[in-house]
Design goal:
Layout lengths: L1 H23 L5 H5 L3 H7 L5 E2 L5 E2 L8 H13 L2 E2 L1 H8 L3 H13 L17 H10 L2 H4 L19 H12 L7 E2 L2 H7 L4 H12 L15
Antiparallel strand pairs: 1-2, 3-4
Helix pairs in contact: 4-5, 4-6, 7-11, 9-10, 9-11
Length: 221
């Protein structure tokens, strides 16, 4: 009986492993993704659009963002690791294939072929550079803050500074069912700083040239 149970267990593990491998190999189709962004463009397709939750801030630029990061972020909203009622509702409505397709679309959206890669970011104030060093931001997001060492990490150079500030504060938030981000690495980093320091850090990174932009849809131009 034990041998039978062991055999069944091994078979189940093999099936789960095979399923996981297949799930990880989902390929996004940018053209298909363009037809699936109706829930996205109302916020991310309007230049300067502002959200009011949890405070007033511009919604993030996502055109030109890495597809694996977008997929990772949507997956985190779906799992509740990133807490945001609206984004949770949107992510819940998407299949894994939908997420992969939408991520592929936004990675290519607004990208001009042949554009040279950004070099090392210009230094900011001495205080800002002190904060960047303390947070070891370059070690994950790259010297340009647009070339993360892992494709599931975001490009952050040129992102709206007020959004960056809200996002950084969310990593510090605990025991709140509506706000917060469950990322141990970023949580540990953000908690080193006061909110005033996070705002200065966000202002510096947001002031840098980056690869992110907002591509308005025709109906919003």
């Amino acid at each position: 009986m034990n041998k039978l149970l062991l055999s069944v267990f091994v078979a189940l593990v093999a099936q789960v492993t095979s399923f996981t491998a297949c799930a990880q190999e989902i390929k996004g189709d940018a053209q298909a993704g363009e037809k699936k962004i109706a829930l996205c463009i109302g916020c991310h397709g309007i230049i300067g659009y502002q959200a009011s939750f949890p405070e007033i801030h511009k919604v993030p630029k996502i055109s030109g963002q890495g597809s694996k990061f977008i997929a990772s972020a949507l997956g985190a909203y779906k799992k509740g690791e990133r807490k945001h009622p609206t984004m949770r509702g949107i992510a819940d409505a998407l299949s894994d294939q939908d997420i992969a397709d939408i991520a592929a679309h936004y990675e290519s959206s607004g990208v001009v072929a042949g554009t040279p890669a950004l070099g090392k970011a210009a230094d900011g104030s001495s205080k800002a550079m002190e904060l960047v060093a303390k947070g070891a931001c370059v070690s994950c997001h790259g010297e340009s803050f647009s070339k993360p060492i892992d494709p599931t990490y975001p490009k952050i150079a040129g992102q709206h500074s007020d959004y960056l500030f809200v996002a950084l504060k969310a990593y510090k938030t605990e025991s709140n069912p509506m706000i917060g981000r469950g990322n141990a690495i970023m949580g540990g980093i953000a908690k080193q700083f006061t909110n005033a320091e996070l705002k200065e850090l966000a202002n510096y990174i947001g002031s840098l040239p980056g690869e992110l932009n907002t591509v308005p849809q025709a109906k919003f131009k």
